[in-house]
């Protein structure tokens, strides 16, 4: 199954910036059309190889500077068995795990040693094209995307480093009875900014303009926010914000 991007290529074609996105997996899952769409949408060079070995051989053992290394779920066992090689290939870029089944993502999340190897991103492949592009955009800007399917795994973490809470971007997890302030603290800086503007009654278009992001990204942030704080709509999220946010945050700028 390839990503459903049939008619979703942006009208504004952009020249590649020289930074690369390398997809590891079969053409069935990362089609040529998907690669062209990524190049057109984000202005990066996108390539695909089925395995890490094929990529290394293609680049004569030296993978060029990557912005992101996307690893298909079929390579999960290989990724877990030799994470150092994948990290070396990614270089200064991030690793993103592309999954079609939530069980595969949960399994990697529980077994990936974040204390030793750092955090990785998660890229769901069975979502709407605009959502997929928004998630990819977050990952390309080094914003950790943590699907809500991991909430139970985070709350049951035993602190041994294998299932410890993600620390990047200030994410933490509220324990039982910790209350709404703990839920608020688990939001990323950007999610708090979006939530603050939502609490002021701003539209997605205005929020996107003020924060310099797209409306799709605003929607994605709000999707994450409502999932993390356990509310069902923007109104409830706004009430939540006014109850728990520090007073200076309510009146501060978006900077």
Automatic annotation (TrEMBL):
Q: Sorted alphabetically, which InterPro entries does this protein's record hold?
A: Sig_transdc_resp-reg_C-effctor, Tscrpt_reg_LuxR_C, WH-like_DNA-bd_sf
The stretch of residues making up the signal peptide is none
The record ties this protein, via SMART domains, to: HTH_LUXR
Which keywords, in A-to-Z order, does the entry hold? Answer: DNA-binding, Transcription, Transcription regulation
Q: Where would I find the HTH luxR-type domain in this sequence?
A: 180-245
A Pfam family this protein belongs to?
A: GerE
What is the protein name for this chain?
Response regulator transcription factor
């Amino acid at each position: 199954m390839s990503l459903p991007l049939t008619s979703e290529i942006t009208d504004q074609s952009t020249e590649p910036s020289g930074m690369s996105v390398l997809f590891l997996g079969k053409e069935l899952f990362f089609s040529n059309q998907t690669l062209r769409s990524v190049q057109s949408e984000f202005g990066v060079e996108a390539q695909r190889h089925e395995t890490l070995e094929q990529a290394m051989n293609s680049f004569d053992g030296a993978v060029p500077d990557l912005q992101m290394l996307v690893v298909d779920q079929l390579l999960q066992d290989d990724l877990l068995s030799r994470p150092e090689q994948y990290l070396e290939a990614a270089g200064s870029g991030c690793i993103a795990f592309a999954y079609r089944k939530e069980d595969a993502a949960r399994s990697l999340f529980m077994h990936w040693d974040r204390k030793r190897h750092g955090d990785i991103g998660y890229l769901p492949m069975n979502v709407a094209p605009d959502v997929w592009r928004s998630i990819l955009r977050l990952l390309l800007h080094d914003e950790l995307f943590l699907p809500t399917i991991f909430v139970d795994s985070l709350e049951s973490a035993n602190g041994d480093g294998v299932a410890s809470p993600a620390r990047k971007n200030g994410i933490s997890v509220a324990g039982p009875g910790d209350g709404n302030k703990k839920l608020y603290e688990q939001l990323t800086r950007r999610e708090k900014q979006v939530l603050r503007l939502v609490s002021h009654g701003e539209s997605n278009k205005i929020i996107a303009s003020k924060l310099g992001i797209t409306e799709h990204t605003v929607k994605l942030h709000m999707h994450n926010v409502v999932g993390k704080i356990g509310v069902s709509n923007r109104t409830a999220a706004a009430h939540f914000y006014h109850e728990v946010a520090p007073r200076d945050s309510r009146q501060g700028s978006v900077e």
